[in-house]
Every structure is written in C-alpha cells, then in structure tokens.
Amino acid sequence: MEALFQAIGGFGLFLFGMGIMTSGLKNLAGKRLVQWLGRATRTPLSGSITGATFTAIVQSSSATTVVAMGFVGAGLITFSQSLGILFGANIGTTVTGWIVAVVGFKLKLGTAALPLLLIASFLYMAKKHPVLRGWGKALAGFALIFLGISYLQTGLAGARDWIDLSGFDAGSIRGRVILLLLGAALTLITQSSSATVAAALTALHTGVIDLPQAAAVIIGADIGTTATAALATIGGNTGSRRTGFAHVIYNLLTGIGAFLFLPLYLWLWKSYAPEMTENSPEIVAVAFHTVFNFIGVVVALPFTNQFARFIERLFPKREDPLSAALNPKLLAIPDAAIGALETSARAVSSAALQLAGILLSDGNVRQANHPPNEILKAISKARAFAVSIGKSANEEDLDLKTLFALLHVIDHCERLTERLLDSRFDDLEHQEKFQEISKRLAKLFTDLATEIDAAQPIKMEPGLNSTATELELDKNQIRSHLISRAAKGELTDDELDQALDGARWLRRLAYHSWRIEAYWREIQG
Predict the structure, then answer these.
(1) What CATH number does the domain containing 401 carry?
(2) Which range has the worst mean pLDDT, 77-81, 119-123, 364-368?
(3) Structure pTM?
(4) What is the SS3 string spanning 294-349?
(5) Which of 314, 342, 365 is the endpoint of a domain?
C-alpha cells in the first residue's frame, strides 16, 4: 500500500510540477514570444517549426493550441496558418518525454531536486523582479517534476509484483486498443499528455509494463490531449471552433496511423538494434512518440489547404463579421484579446467609412455591406469587450497605448455612424459649393475604408486631415456665403437653415473620419 501511495503522490507531484513550470516559462516567455508565434506562421512549414519551438519552450501543447485558437478567433492569423502551429505542437510536446527518458532515469535527480527547490524559493521571493520570479517558478516546477518521477519510480518498483497487466497484450489489436484508451482516459483526467507519457515511461523503466504496452499508452496520450482544445471551443467563434476541432481530427488521424505503424516500428528495432529494446526501452518508446508525430507532420503539410477547406465546410461561418473576433475566452490572453479588439475595430471602421462614402457619392446606403444599426450594435459589443480586457488583465500585461487608441477609434466610429443615421445629405445635394467637397470626401472615405480593411499601413496622402482642416477653417466663410445668398433671396429661411445644418453635418463627418485615420496611423506606429 505504501508503494501505491508513493506512486500516486509522485504522479501528483509531476502534474503539479508541470503546471508550475509551464506557468513560469510562459511568464518568462512574455508577450514577445506570443507575438512571435502569431507573426512566424506565414506558411504551413514555418507554422510547424514555430509551433514545435513554442511548445518546447512553454512545455505545453495545450497552451500552444489554445493560443493558436485565440489568434484565429481574433483574426490575427488565418485558419490555414494555424494548422501549421497545431502540427508542430505535436512534435514540440515530445520534448518532455525526452527529458524524462534521457535525464530522469539516467541521473538520480530526486535528491538533487530538494536544493533546487530552495534556490527556486529564494528566486520567487524577489517580488520586484518579475524575471527572477519567473525563473524561480520554472525551476520549482522542474524540481517537482523530477521529485515526482523519483517517487513514481520508487512506488511502481515496489508495486511491480502485484500489478499484473499481462492481460493487456499490446501484440494483439484488442490489447493495443485497450491500452490506447487507458492512455487517452488518463490524459483526459489529468489534462496533460506529458504526465501520461512520463507515467508510461516510468512504468516501462520499472518493468510494470513492456515496450509495446508503453507505446500504445503514448498513442492514447496524443489522442486524449485534444480534449483541452475541444473544451476550449465551447462558446468560441467559428475560427476558434475550426482550429480546436482541426486539432482533434488531426490527432485522431495521427493516432490511427501510429496504431498501424507500431508493429512495424517494434520489428525494425528488434531486427536492427535489439540491445536498445533490452537496455533502453524508454528511449525506444519516446523515439516512437517523436517519429510518428514527425511522420504525421510530413504527411499532412502538403495537404494543409485541402484539410483547411474540409474543416471550413464542416464549420461554416455564422457570426456577425463585425464582431465575430470578440471571443470572451481570449480575455485570458491580453495580447490576443487586444488583437481581437483591433480586428473588430478594423471591420467596424471599414464598414462605417464605406457607408459614409456611399452616402456622399449617391445617397443609396442600401449598397453598403452593413447598415448603420448593425454597425452600432457591433460598436457596442466592441466597447464592452474593451472594458472586459481592462478588468481581466493586470496593467503591466496590457498594451495600454494600443488599447486606448482602439477605444478612440470605436468612439469616433460610433459618432460617425450616428451622424450618418441623421443624414443631411439631401440638404447639400442642390448646393453647388458642397458638391465638389462631397465627392472629394466620398473618395477619401472609400479609399481609407479599403486601406483599413486590408490591414496595411495607411498610405493616403495628404489624407483626411487637410480636408477636415479646410472645412473647419472655412466654416465662417461658408456661413457668410449662405447667409449672403439668403439675403439676395436665393434661399428661403428654411433652405438657409437646412444648408447650415448640412454644412455642419459634413464638417463633423470629415472630422470623425480624420480622427479614425489618425488613430489607425498611431496604432500602426
């Protein structure tokens, strides 16, 4: 019974250590690493390399998958780009198994872990130095992992005589399926494929299970780890759901391939390097984990676009495109949340400016992609999301300059759209003086909407600034001109009031659009 408690406690220590180490490494990685993950995914191949590297650094394929889902949901990367990250994450997660197999069993680190915990505690107490605290957290998790392996190894060795798994023969399809399901179930319970792999390697090292059994459990761990992605899709937008379920389907296909490949893999080792299967079966097992995931990536990469189209057919888009990016689950990742807000603000800005351009060109707002009420509804959602970002994140984790600029964009979009709802275009239609200005503004609005929607640096020169300034400086001259016409009998009192209101309306359109342009230039640096 004591051996069993040691094994259970050791497994718990390993899980706890993995959680602490992952948290510490993510803190050390900081926002720049997350931003790099979003930028370095231009092709499926670069995405795979990036996903593998990111997962190896933060020691969590689930974290990588959730971040990728967040980026897709925020519109920071396309769904097809995210697939490369998912493929690579499966390779990166095998690093933990290599650490356990190469270091954990070859070197006796259980005792060495204790002084490491002392060092980690001193580093973690440096409250004014976030980097030192991050290192302390990561080091503490690393020490607990090896302390857990030590207890797990001792416990399983002591319980070896009364644990009989010979009934689950991995040489038969039935036995492999049962062991695969056990691995998947353990991963579902622990929410950590690394913990399941470590437990399988430790059981193999202590002789509780044999090599084929350990390999079957490892396949199950790879399938079971998709549960985190599947759960993260609940309440997410279409982009997040596509990414999460793509991870599930890909890992299922990879698992089926590994299941069929396992007999050949074991035969190759026994035929060409039998001493490795006898003396270092843990290395052979963890190599299997890496090999089948690597083969899966190599096979999948050429078919990334076809796979993406298949998933897109399974999960067609249904959300409002103006606010689809605003997924509440992204609030746990401040950078991704601000990215989602930026995507939504970009869509709203483009829609409002396009509407303004159409209204000033021919007055037929039915040609616009989004009516004013739909834009205002999206603006309300975006503002609420921005407030939630501020409430859910620490100030030091936020890019406050970008957040405030986006709030200004949203505010001016709302004011512009409200002006469009209260249109005074008919009051200007027969005023020759405003026709040229209206046409110029219509083109500027349309051009700016196109540039914002393309997410490219704004290159409009001189932009709306000069026209808005011109209208502001000439407002007294325009007023005098209209009053003079009324004095000559060219305008009635009602027509004068309408013309003055129309001039003021046009001036405010130009002003709010100019401010939208100015804040987007600020956001783009």
Answers:
(1) 1.20.58
(2) 364-368
(3) 0.71
(4) HHHHHHHHHHHHHHHHHHHHHCCCCCCCCCCCCCHHHHHCHHHHHHHHHHHHHHHH
(5) 314
